[in-house]
């Protein structure tokens, strides 16, 4: 404020009050200009105009939604679980399908082994019968 400025430069104000007011006005205008310039530099440097535009678009899109937006619960493990659950469920179903295929393949192989053993037993009986016939 002007009063604070005057209190800092009291001696100068007592001698020339009009000049003090003029200096204060110049000081304020230059300060405002430099602040505006700094803000513009920050906006340009951080690409804030584009970011604010995209934020405005997100806000406009969110107005049409009826369900509430997701918010973190404050418990990171719970939040991660919520984010990973769909992926893990998909992975579980994939693993179950793979397990079912492997079990089917194993059942087929086990059946082939049993058939092979039966065939070996038949051949052994046939061999035994021919051996007895030969003797």
UniProtKB/TrEMBL annotation:
The keyword Nucleus is assigned to this record: yes
Chief location category: nucleus
Listed GO biological process terms: cell division; chromosome segregation
A Pfam family matched in the record: Nnf1
Record's keyword annotation contains Nucleus: yes
GO cellular component terms, A-Z: MIS12/MIND type complex; nucleus
Protein name per the record: PMF1 factor
């Amino acid at each position: 404020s002007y009063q604070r400025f005057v209190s800092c430069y009291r001696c100068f104000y007592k001698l020339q009050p009009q000049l003090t007011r003029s200096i204060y006005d110049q000081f304020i205008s230059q300060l405002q200009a430099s602040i505006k310039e700094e803000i513009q530099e920050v906006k340009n440097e951080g690409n804030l105009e584009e970011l604010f535009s995209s934020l405005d678009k997100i806000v406009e899109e969110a107005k049409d939604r009826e369900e509430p937006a997701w918010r973190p619960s404050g418990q990171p493990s719970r939040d991660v679980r919520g984010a990973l659950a769909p992926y893990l469920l998909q992975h579980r179903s994939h693993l179950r399908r793979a397990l079912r295929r492997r079990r089917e393949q194993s059942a087929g192989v086990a059946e082939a082994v049993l058939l092979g053993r039966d065939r070996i037993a038949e051949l052994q009986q046939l061999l035994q019968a021919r051996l007895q016939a030969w003797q």
